[in-house]
Amino acid sequence: MVSGEGISGRLEWKINVSNGTSKVLEPEKGLAARLWQKLHSMIFLKIWRLFVESWKIGVADPKKFTHCLKVGLALSVVSLLYYMRPLYDGIGKNAMWAIMTVVVVCEYTVGSTIYKSINRAVATIAAGSVGVGVHWIASHCDKEYQPVVLGASVFIFASTATFTRFIPTVKARFDYGAMIFILTFSLVSISGYRVEDLVMMAHQRVSTIAIGVSLCILISMLLWPVWAGDQLHNQTISNLEKLAFSLEGYITEYFSNEETTKMPEENLNKKLQGYKCVLNSKATEDSMANFAIWEPSHGRFYFGYPWKQYLKIGAAARSCAYCIDNLNSCIDSKMQAPEALKQHITENCTELSLCCSEVLKELATTIKTRRRSSNIGFSVDKMIFAVEDFENALKSLPRDIVLQLSTVENSVDNRVEKLENPNQATLLEVLPLGMLATLLMEIVARIEQVVQEVDKLADMAEFKIQKEKKLQDIQPTQNDNQTNNQGQETMKTVEEV
Q: Which stretches are transmembrane (predicted)?
């Protein structure tokens, strides 16, 4: 039985169940209430997800969190130009230019901060000087021709500065400065037409910009500095290690079967997909190398360190990564060689991949320690010998394939019939292995190119030779210790007698 009663102007519906109990049905919410509840839950969920992602970013790289603190500190300090009356009276409303400078110039790395600071300071001084000069020329003309002179100067200098931004050298190092030159010169030229004391205005703006630039450089260098050179150095090391792990992992996966032990999927994916980071690293390396050139001497890196050579190492590493990418497509191809054929070269391919991986790891260690490794020559020779063994294994492959095909044919087909063209079938069977062999040899050739580029870096940066203890140096010391111990025991025996 269903009943409805009015309670304080509302309807309350009850359902009487057969067992004597009753259940109250709440009235359905309106459309606006439902929309508000849904919108509220979505907003709260997005805010929570944003907080979780921000927390993960801060935990993964605490330097990003400290960079935020440095920007806040720089803005707080430069805002004193407004809060302190003596400073405000000396600089005036142009103090806002210092705040704008801090917001624009304060970057994540020291190199990028110095790059923007120097470009902004030089461009501001140059544009201000040219603007004052143009204003002086215009002031000596008739009043009617002054706007024409100023407008023509803006057109000429702005067009010329914009064209220089297309020049590769200027684009790489002075693009930001060219943009600031256009902005500052236009503001000085236009505002100078209505301002009486243009020199004082230009002087105050240059002063405030110099204050903001100096403050940003000091804070970025003294408080938890993040050097672009260190990041480029570490990324180059990481890329070589990722190439080594990817190459070793792909060869292991290609020649693995169900009986062999397999590593967890997460670890395997990290090893196999590492080369993709190398393929996408060009833009990052170019920007970091450009910023590292501006950085002063710090740690193990001096001013004028050959950062451009890291770009050549990165280019050689990417060429090697392209071959590994093709190796990946070869492994995922539907056309695969029989297991019996793989077994013929499994040992040689695995040995060759291990040798290549060893060379890449040795190169990464050389760059990391900034010391010439005495084992790199031995590792390269070992890799070359592995290539020769691999070629010898491939030379003996066709004869085994013909024998294998004839055996399989006789065992499967009782009718003694031969293929019309067994060599064509053999070629189709060998084709995947031929592609694999070609890629491995090409990888070896490109690894040798990486070795040459690292050797050039060692020469340019004057890497020291790594000192290693040899067995011949250790044995004489052990023999001397044994002789000394025997002499001491003989002296004790003589004393006892």
A: 95-115, 121-138, 145-164, 176-195, 207-227
- Res 362: pLDDT: 92
Contact indicator for 208, 101 with CB cutoff of 8 Å: yes
* Measured CA distances, 37 to 32, 34, 238, 452 (Å): 9, 5, 49, 65
Q: Per DSSP, what are the bridge partners of residue 251?
A: none
pLDDT digits (tens, 9 = 90+) for 432-441: 777 888 888 8
Q: 11 pairs with which residues across the strands?
A: 6
Task: Name the strand (E) or helix (H) holding 465.
Answer: strand 464-465
Which pair of tokens denotes residue 446?
């490109």
User: Cα–Cα distance between 489 and 487 in angstroms, integer?
Assistant: 5
- For 308, residues 6+ apart whose C-beta sits below 8 A from its C-beta are 289
* DSSP-assigned letter for residue 29: P
Instruction: Return the higher-pLDDT residue of 477 and 210.
Output: 210
Query: Does residue 288 contact residue 231 with C-beta atoms inside 8 Å?
Result: yes
**Cα dihedral 213→219→222→226 (10° resolution):** -90
Helix residue ranges, H only, 255-375: 265-272, 274-279, 282-292, 308-331, 339-369
Residue 350, CA atoms < 13 Å, CB-side half-sphere: 11
What is the per-residue DSSP string for 385-436?
HHHHHHHHHHHTHHHHHHHHHHHHHHHH--S----S-HHHHHHHHHHHHHHH
Amino acid 225 reads P
Map tokens 């050298």 to a residue: 169
Tokens describing residue 450:
């990486």
Which residues are CB-contacts of 22 (< 8 A; sequence separation ≥ 6)? Answer: 14, 15, 16
* Total-model pTM: 0.76
For residue 258, pLDDT beyond 60 = no
Mean pLDDT, the chain, as a whole number?
77
Count of CA atoms in the C-beta half-sphere (13 A) of 39:
6
pLDDT digits (tens, 9 = 90+) for 28-61: 566 777 677 777 677 777 787 888 887 888 777 7
